[in-house]
Amino acid sequence: DSSHTASTSSHCVTYSSNVSVQDMGINAEYGGLWRAKYLYESAHHPETGERQNLIGRMSFQVPGGMVITGILLAFYKSPVEVFLGQWLNQSFNALVNFTNRSGDKPLPNSVILSAYLTATSLATATSIG
Questions:
Q1: Average pLDDT, stretch 32-44?
Q2: Rounded to whole angstroms, how far apart are CA atoms 14 and 1?
Q3: Residue 14's pLDDT is what?
Q4: How many angstroms separate the CA atoms of 2 and 6, rounded?
């Protein structure tokens, strides 16, 4: 279970001085603490330490973008298909940007919502022409 592995990695990295790698369930033959460190860093925001949404992680950018590109190429014959495809694309981009935002200052929800609505509105309006 990836959720358990990421959680275990988080505890292992955070408390590495007090807990052995084997006690945390990380197999030492795969690099032990280093593997836990890589798993932790791939799942948690570097500044805030909060767990990142799986779809919003940079490691999901290519597979997610490929699926959306396939959708955009397959469904283009009506304005509704173009609109929905562009909305999906821009929503995915907004999620990736939100997940990987700078964490030094929290943003109010009104600013996040305004940015999302502006980006999706402009992208869909441009695509329809």
A1: 82
A2: 20
A3: 58
A4: 6
